[in-house]
Amino acid sequence: MTDQSPTRFLVPAADGSDLDPQETAEWREAFLSIVANEGPARARFILDQLAILARSPRVGWSPELVTPYVNSVPVESQLHFPGDLAIEEKLASIMRWNALAMVVRANTAYGELGGHIASYASAADLFEAGFNHFFHTRDLVFYQPHSVPGVYARAYLEGRLAEADLAHFRQEISAARRGARGLSSYPHPWLMPEFWQFPTGSMGLGPISSIYHARFMRYLTHRGLLDCNGRKVWGVFGDGEMDEPESMSALTLASREKLDNLVWIVNCNLQRLDGPVRGNGRIVDELEKLFRGAGWNVIKLLWGSDWDGLFARDGEGALVKAFAHTVDGQMQTFAAKDGRFNRENFFGQNEQLARLVQGMTDEQIDRLKRGGHDLVKIHAAYHAAAQHRGEPTVILAHTKKGYGMGAAGQGRMTTHSQKKLDGAVLIEFRNRFNLPITDEQAKNLEFFKPAEDSAEMRYLHDRRRQLGGYLPARKSEAPKLAVPALDSYASFATKAAGHPMSTTMAFVRLLGNLLKDKQLGSRIVPIVADEARTFGMANLFKQVGIYSSVGQKYEPEDIGSVLSYREALDGQILEEGISEAGAIASWTAAATSYSVHGFPMLPFYIYYSMFGFQRVGDAIWAAADQRARGFLLGATSGRTTLGGEGLQHQDGTSHLIAATIPNCRAWDPAFAGEMAVIIDHGMREMLVEQTDVFYYITLMNESYAMPDLPADAHEGVIRGAYRLDGYGEGHAKVTLLGSGAILTEVIKAAELLAREGIASEVVSVTSWSELCRAALDSRQRGNDGHITNLLASTQGPIVAATDYVRAVPESIRAFVPEGRRYITLGTDGFGRSDTRAALREFFGVDAASIASAARRASG
Ligand SMILES: Cc1ncc(C[n+]2csc(CCOP(=O)(O)OP(=O)(O)O)c2C)c(N)n1
Q1: CA dist 772 to 240, 317, 785, 835, Å?
Q2: What pLDDT is attached to residue 6?
Q3: Atom of ligand 1 at shortest range from CA of 116
Q4: DSSP character for 834?
Q5: What is the spatial distance between Cα 588 and Cα 410, in angstroms, rounded to a whole number?
Q6: Residue 277 per-residue DSSP state
Q7: Which of 39, 65, 445, 477 is most buried, most CB within 10 Å of its CB?
Q8: Which among 600, 603, 629, 634 has a CA at the least distance from the CA of 616?
Q9: 273 CA distance to ligand 1 centroid (A)?
């Protein structure tokens, strides 16, 4: 039996000095004898005791978080491999081939299509071990985006994709014309809604999303809504991807929440796109420290089974010493070179190392596997991860990028983008993986599928049957949820009778009412990023509680108050702290629960509007791809409405960005009634009609009199604009459009003009982007859209004003009836601090500026 316990590999201190080697040896021997005679548990206990002593300030010792460069699962604790290794290896080789053929074929036909071979080549065994033994259909699996050819290759063998589909990788438009299904470049639920669940194409978003999905499963369980026990979240990511701040930003959340339902597999092929991830260091060491420090269980999967013998013979720990001074840039070179080079340059470093490989051929040295290419070792690591309790696990799997691509790619600097291979390389690859195809077939890049009744195919299907079915697979159907009647929760807003309030206050009241609804209430997920008090939501703390996986272990300072801070296991609010990236990931998990869990939830994430599309726009784009259904509330919105906060807080652009997301419906209501009608409509669209849309609604903190919203205005609110009363006597000479906070300025302008004898009509615009979209649609059908018809019934030049950049009202210019002047006022430029009045005057969106634009236009 091989002893790979870390104690065997003690390395001298960095400067090598040892003042009393004999004493050191005695200590080591004493320790080793405890391990040998009393077992590892006792050894750990002794170490813990010593660590307590050693942490005393006088010693000034803090333990090294890095362990030697060896497997965490020692060979003696390795489970007997429960699969048929030979068949699994054959299957993995077939996946490798079909994945490679798919990419090379597409690029031979159309050089511009792109695609990747080297990433999946390094990850194939990591994927296959998961598919054959661990990824259950009840689990959530996040796939590294540029390894998707391998996932398609598997679905092809499983009979879920046809050969014609494989032949249309990255040809989603032309495939349909040829009766095939185009396969998207990366996992995109929007494009392949029955296949992909989680978009991961933008590095970093998959990792953070996986954490929040795992946490959301706990939330569902703890709130007694859905039992998610026994289900796991697996994520396969790249070591380069760990550079992204999003990858790292929620690591401590995962450990704090003890997410042992989460396993990350980080494919440490030591390379990213341009070159080594840490050429002058070791990414595995760096990640080990980082994850361990963040409270994760770290499993290093570094060396394959054929190294076991070498370690066993290496009495002096020469290998570990050599790894300790081999940086990744060098390790990559070893990956790129042949057995002979490795014998001379790695094993040739000293006599002990050279002795280890005596008797091995260069070919055998070349074939020494890294851990991430050995199905037995991978299985052992995954098994340990799946069994681990109390902490999330990361598996650091050591692989070679472009594994098996020979001189054309393995370990090469340029391998990431390699997508064309010549005939000789294809034949070499065929040989390397013993594929049963002829030279001709290899050169022609023919896909290979064993006969349905072959042992391989029976095994493949059987393994998936044992694991619940095929993956990836996305569900679209979910039960409908009943939405209460608008009057039951929002009459305070639709019949406001001139009561002053802000739209934020109105929203919070509306949300409080909805939370009380017997059927829908429990499905609502209020989400905040440390701004609940800013938005006047503190009352909800007591009403529905803040979710905490450990309840509340302290007596809150404000315990006597009606608004007291209340954390609870079944708390409903997700308080994400100051992490917009986390909060949006949390929102996405809730907004896709209908599909991921077949259990619809309705999230309302309310935040400073400036820190939404601008700050985490890419995450919102990914949520859109994932077909999220829910509400985003951009509060304290508008460039002039959040007076004192200044340049980095005042949002003048979110509506511009929101308009670019096809399934985002964005609204800028001015009145509480409008906001209520929009939310009502959204809930029906998402929960009853089950349309894959999400709503973005801007809210303001400016309080003013809220009028009643007449029933006949509801339709206009939803279409994006409706007419308010006319102002002044006689025929209107001018038409004024306004939205959000600036509508009140528009109305004041109409009153000013009326006093001067200029009559006007006022239109409340609730959504510029909906007006624009509907008008474009109508135009394609040869009709006029709502805004064109509405404006055709008004008179004179049109002045449009908003609290956003002018490009927002400009978006409907093309649909203004012919011959009418259209003037837009907006808040272009940097924000700054002052009163609302001063800001509106400065940007030219106050009543006086609007009136003056109207006068000039109509004069
Ligand atoms: C946000 C973002 N930035 C850049 C890219 C482009 N990109 C795709 S893969 C890749 C390198 C990935 O390296 P690594 O994570 O180490 O994976 P490997 O292919 O080496 O397994 C880059 C930079 C991207 N997809 N997303």
Answers
A1: 41, 70, 8, 32
A2: 45
A3: 19
A4: S
A5: 37
A6: S
A7: 445
A8: 634
A9: 6
